[in-house]
Amino acid sequence: MTQLLLLIVFLLVLGHVPPGRSEFKRCWNGQGACRTYCTRHETFMHLCPDASLCCIPYGVKPAAAHKP
């Protein structure tokens, strides 16, 4: 009986957990991460759809525009 109760509680708690790793949303073609604050090894490029910062590591450079 206690195992059934624990299973029900576990399933209820599991239903309230957001799917995936929501704190690691990706941006800038998968090279950046959406965060509230950027680390000291990252730079801010633009805003993510949820109004957080798109943080890009300093080693990653945006693709240069190709001239025809």
From TrEMBL:
Pfam families associated with the record: Defensin_beta_2 (PF13841)
GO biological process assignments: canonical NF-kappaB signal transduction; cellular response to peptidoglycan; defense response to bacterium; innate immune response; positive regulation of chemokine (C-C motif) ligand 5 production; positive regulation of monocyte chemotaxis
Lineage: superkingdom: Eukaryota
Main location: secreted
Keywords: Antibiotic, Antimicrobial, Defensin, Disulfide bond, Secreted, Signal
Gene3D superfamilies linked to this entry: Antimicrobial Peptide, Beta-defensin 2, Chain A
Electron transport in keyword set: no
Family: Belongs to the beta-defensin family.
Stated role: Has antibacterial activity.
Protein name: Beta-defensin
